[in-house]
Amino acid sequence: MLPKTTRTGRFNGTCTSSVDMELFLHYSLIPSLFIVLILSFLQRREQRRQRDDTSYLLGNRFGIIMPLDFVGTFSNRWSYGIAFGATANKVMFLFSEGYQPLQIPQWAQAFELLIGGLEVGLSHFPFFACLSSEFQLVSSTLGFCYSLIWFAVTILQVSQCPHGQFVGKYETLVFYWPSLLCLAFLLGRFLYMFVKALRVHLGWELQVEEKPVLEAHQAEHVKQLLRTPRPQEEKKSWFQTRIYEWDPCFQFPSRMIGTIVLAFICLYLFIVIEFCMFVYVRDELEMFENKLESYITSVNHSGILTPAILQVKELISVTKGVWVATILPASLTCVSYLFHILVCYRKHIKRLWAGDKHFLPLRFRNPASSESVVAIARYSGWQIAYILWGYFIIHVVQSLCGMAIMYGLVLPIVHKQGLEMLRGLGIGILTISIVVGLMILQMWIATSFFLQPKLGTADKQKPLALNNRKAFHNFNYFLFFYNVLLGLGACLSRLLISCLLGTWLIARIDRTIMPSGYEGADMGFSAWIGMLYVDHYHTNPVLVSFCHILITDHRERKLQQTTKYWCLNQSAGPRVSARSRTRWLLLQTLINNPRLVMLRKSKLGHSSQESQILMTCSDS
User: Fold this and answer.
1) Do residues 322 and 406 make contact, with C-beta atoms less than 8 angstroms apart?
2) Which of 366, 385, 386, 376 lies closest to 530 in space, CA to CA?
3) Containing domain of residue 40, as a range?
4) Total domains present in the chain
5) Considering the entire predicted model, what is its pTM?
């Protein structure tokens, strides 16, 4: 893209930057690994290894660091989304295959892209790890320092070479301002986390409870299901009816928010890169036009190729204008797709929660578990790639449509051939109208003469029962030959409509563009369905509420068993230490089970003393 050490610009000549972003990406792995090791050391493992395992020496330290929960995280959603946005420039490098950390053969390029993706992921891993860590005092400090390093290096890169040869002034800033904005947000977020954790550490604020199993919006959803439905008194607005209605009992997971934020920034960068390529091609075409103009001048406008050259110049001019004019509608189409994907996600996941699978093809109503697990790992990356390629394809299709409009309607008027254009347009419209009219006439004749009357007055249509059979067979015979010719046009229209809809909906991963029975060939739609099923099985509010009730009941029973013999807690007396409480419970257990004394680990003189004490207690 733009981060190269040397650039040639029309404003600052040859710009030599002291910062090589690709080299900095390599060196950023050192502090990244350092931060990961510190957080891993603080993270305790739930189960300790056995003594015969070499990792037993580490105790319960060096637990696995999780960047974020891709399934059930509903807190800090926008922080994770902004952290994804900070990786947009590097994601675009990977998308354009411009980042190649190794020099390997062409056949092994897939491994090179995999290594590049792992390196980019590891370099930005501290952003997510510090946001999700339980040790916020340490993680906020490390995250702030790491974000400050990236922010300072990016600012240095922009300040040293702000201009370029494509966009012109502040070209580098045009590319890097989304990342700078995301990094600035992360700096503020980590600073807020540090202040809050410091206040908790000093005792000025209460410690926030651990993440609940049941989120508040999930509990509200279950309560809403248990309430008696009431008739809606308030009238919905046009926006709520046609576009989107806010649901307080539903929240999008962090994965969806991060995917949409990153898709927006990557789409913006892709449009800027496309415009830069357009500027480059436009300059080359201008040089070509100058050569054609010099040729026409040299032959004094009387050469044999002069008319063809003028048509070529006109084609170039029209193409440049149409391409620029269709940037806005193509970008708005993809932006609307991003919002529509969120709407479809909520609609589909709610249908699955209600047990409704009729909107899915038969093949996807019981997907394999392994396919669903892989699908949720693929979805976010594939969604962004579909949006970027979809924008380019939609832009090309809209440009072709614009070219057809220019050559069919505008240019004839410019060349004073408006009457001929209107005559041809009128003939075409009349021809299509006659064909459509004949098709409508066939429907009217079939409805009026070849169907039996309605069975009841309340029926909406006539029954499928033939009437006037002899006339019907003559009708079919004489229209047989005409429908052969009509079928040719219908076939071509089917092909044209399929191509237009396929290219128009190529960015829509939430619906398949394959015909019925071939949906399995649409890998993007398969990833969408698998992702929905994983979220359905792991974030279903009814299931999560049930698990929450079981966990709460288990904790209450365990607490009741622990305090069964502990009457001092119910009194107003002085507090007793946990060690004394444990010894008291141990004494009660040994009195009720004297044989357990023989099984306990013996110490010097302790076993005999315990036996005497237990004998005295049992005698008494």
Assistant:
1) yes
2) 376
3) 18-44+59-211
4) 1
5) 0.79
